[in-house]
Specification:
Two copies of one chain form a homodimer. The first copy, chain A, is 14% helix and 45% strand. The first copy, chain A, is mainly beta. Chain A folds into two domains: 108 residues, no CATH class; 69 residues, Barwin-like endoglucanases (Beta Barrel), CATH 2.40.40. Chain A is globular.
Chain lengths: 198, 198
């Protein structure tokens, strides 16, 4: 089974309340649809800060949600000197704190900073068609000079989905993958359950 | 077979002539030994530039060599808007151009910018002991939440070597590996020879 890749750059999801605090307005403007139905790139950007370390121009992804979440790569985490956990989107309880700075204000989030779990957006119908129960993890084989296997990928099952493997920029760059490239779905190696260090 | 990992940050190797042009002196000062015998971190840093894009504080690794080479990650390449080839160290013919800026001068290298091939430093004796001929590629299994398999790793056979898998920062960060972590050597997947896109 061949599956398309989408590389997610660092981005933030915001509540209406926090968006208003940072931008002084209520409406988030769409500039471009993203691969998943209903999701869009806005023209609103924040800076994210921890201590004296800062990363500018982090895009707000719409629509606004009922939680605040900042998804970064390990490269970003090293730059910010933070150590966020690997989490599924929305699972932000006891994740890392981060400061958001917008044009009209700033907010210190007590939690919400994560590295995203590798995940595949898929519908219930597609899951059934391909013989998965949606609970097992899977892996993908990546061909090319910088090839290999990316393991421990979860399914994110939604009513509407564009079948895509979402990776962060570190994963994309390590395997020389760009959005739109194709990889082969295979069984998980179980590398997250092995005892050996790393 | 378990093998230690070393993560190489972006760095440059210089000839005596180019070092002199950039720094106005002949001697490169050691501040710290690196994992491979005889190799050391110096206290000399250059900026690397392509067009208007620049990355500062790139360390010169000693000793000085008979060629000039700049090793960066794909993340760096995207920042610089360049597209260097994946190459073994020393194989710089027709690699990408780059500008080096030192405290005493700057130099436009017509070639020398590469992404490093994933490689294992090993002695002839160790190769023999583990049953490799040194020509085949290998892979490693990485355990952990961000685990998987890193394929297409070459052996770099030297008279003296500290047995280590050298990866760049993108590869380290994608797999949550730090220098000193351990991975398991396995057979190559052959992912660099497959026809499927990526």
């Amino acid at each position: 089974m061949i599956i398309k890749v989408g590389i997610s750059n660092r981005h933030v999801h915001l509540t209406k309340e926090i968006y208003f605090k940072l931008f002084g307005k209520e409406e988030l403007e769409k500039v471009r649809d993203l691969d998943q139905p209903g999701q869009y790139a806005s023209n609103s950007f924040v800076s994210i800060r921890s201590g004296s370390r800062i990363i500018d121009n982090v895009r707000v992804v719409g629509p606004l949600r009922n939680y605040n979440q900042v998804e970064i790569s390990r490269t970003d985490a090293i730059k910010l000197k933070v150590n966020p956990p690997v989490r599924d989107s929305g699972d932000i309880s006891h994740s890392a704190p981060i400061i958001l700075i917008g044009p009209k204000g700033s907010v210190a989030l007590p939690e919400g900073l994560i590295l995203a779990t590798r995940h595949i957006h898929i519908t219930k119908e597609e899951l059934k068609k391909y013989g998965f129960d949606g609970k097992q993890k899977v892996a993908v084989l990546v061909n090319g000079e910088k090839g290999g296997i990316i393991d421990n990928i979860k399914f994110k099952v939604l009513d509407t989905a564009f079948l895509t493997l979402h990776l962060d920029t570190d994963e994309g760059n390590a395997f020389d993958l760009q959005s739109g490239d194709e990889v082969t779905l295979i069984k998980s190696l179980g590398s997250d359950t092995n005892e050996i260090k790393k």
